[in-house]
Amino acid sequence: MPTLLATVHTRSRPLKINLVETCSLLVTSMFLENDREGDFQAQRILNRAELASILVKTFDLEKRVAQPDEPIAVLDVPTSHWAYRDIQLVWQNNVMTGYRQGRFFPNQRVTRAEAFSILAQAYGVFQFPEDTVAELLSRYPDAEKIPTWARKSMATALYEGFVNIDPLTNSIDPLAPMTRGDMAYALSKYLERQETTAPIPWTIEEPAPM
Minimal CA–CA distance to 117: which of 159, 74, 72? Predict the structure, then answer.
């Protein structure tokens, strides 16, 4: 049976992926869900609550830290909120944190720089030397738009292949909103990484023979 390839358009970044297999795998794995009509909605923009939920499912964050005696007080996320448990878990794991005055802003849209950096944080940010981070980011013409706090995390995400790049301009588009299609691409690459590990992007010097 021939493989069905489809192009998922997420604003200016067409993604050439095996649409049926990728979406089916992610939905079956419960990383992402279809809507009530069974539509994946690749172009829908993610908010912080949705991102928290995806991270908990993908990285099994419930098993990473012992549950605290008292939950974290989040003023804008009541216990009745659909993502209350997931937001508690990402905060407890220091994968995502709140904003001023103990608020999480669950409905706030996330940018690609924020989402990919947070994904890398959950995955495990490589402690690249600063010159390696600079070299990795120098390959992309709009890398200067990446917020300073996100540079090392974005370097990890880019190196691991989690970021869908504009094929014509090699741009990252870090300040654009993060879509479900962007996240589907990232998670498909994350699943691939479970099978093969990326090589270290610097030379390890062997000790001289005695």
Answer: 159
CB atoms within 10 A of CB 105: 16
How far is the first Cα of the chain from the last one, in angstroms, to the nearest whole number?
58
Task: Report the C-alpha gap between 8 and 195 in whole angstroms.
Answer: 24
CA dist., res. 203 & res. 176, Å (int)? 34
d(C-alpha 3, C-alpha 184), whole Å: 18
Place of tokens 């706090």: 149
Tell me how far apart the alpha carbons of residues 206 and 6 are, in angstroms, rounded to a whole number.
Answer: 45
Residue 88: predicted pLDDT: 95
Cα 113 to Cα 148: distance, rounded to the nearest angstrom? 10
3-state secondary structure string across the chain: CCCCCEEEEECCEEEEECHHHHHHHHHHCCCCCCCCCCCCCCCCECEHHHHHHHHHHHHCHHHCCCCCCCCCCCCCCCCCCCCHHHHHHHHHCCCCCCCHHHCCCCCCECEHHHHHHHHHHHHCCCCCCHHHHHHHHCCCCCHHHCCHHHHHHHHHHHHCCCCCCCCCCCCCCCCCECEHHHHHHHHHHHHHHCCCCCCCCCCCCCCCCC
Give the pLDDT confidence of 61-108 residue by residue, as tens digits. 998 877 777 899 999 999 999 999 999 999 999 999 988 789 999 999
* 83 vs 66: CA distance, rounded Å: 19
